[in-house]
């Protein structure tokens, strides 16, 4: 049997990590300053249906695994029920406005691998009430923070269809690092999907956290709700330079 010094083992085999798995996410609320994330429940279906399930919301489902619901309440109710039962290694939260208690959207963990302490933030379904607001940024911040600080994961992933430009830009804006491009990753709704991968790992998190918290601070917004310091500037302030652009391969035709 071969034996190594600690230094040799580190160089040849990599660093030692805890052998026990991270806990699987539980159905607990994650509370924020502007929003609360509440475990998805059947009584959320009506509020969600009105903001993401109508014919006018069809474009919201372009890059989701599900087809648009276009006003089909029975199919939408079945969708909500299936996401509560957690049969697909996912854990869903409904996004509530902190002050009004209005439902704003959905988000989940998925691809949860406790043994490797790896988890993904996905199924990001932000209604028009939430898009391009500090509330949407707080949702993502709360999910990342909960994964690292409460559950003890080492890696938080963000993946999206390569054609989904807003999702790619959001990943970079939140401080995720671009890691790769998976060509013809899978077939979705009869079409070939290329997938772009991003991640934040545990040693990245302290700096990313400082930037996100500084940007989300009430002091960073004027009386009209306009930001004073951009999130890109906040990242730079705490030592992380956000890439100026992200050049990725186009979808092959």
Automatic annotation (TrEMBL):
Keywords: Acyltransferase, Transferase
Gene3D superfamilies documented for this protein: 3.40.630.30
Residue ranges constituting the N-acetyltransferase domain according to the UniProt record: 37-177
GO MF entries: protein N-terminal-serine acetyltransferase activity; protein-N-terminal-alanine acetyltransferase activity
EC number assigned by the record: 2.3.1.-
InterPro entries, sorted: Acyl_CoA_acyltransferase (IPR016181), GNAT_dom (IPR000182), Ribosomal_N-acetyltransferase (IPR051908)
PANTHER family in UniProt: FAMILY ACETYLTRANSFERASE, PUTATIVE (AFU_ORTHOLOGUE AFUA_7G00850)-RELATED, RIBOSOMAL-PROTEIN-SERINE ACETYLTRANSFERASE
Protein name: Acetyltransferase
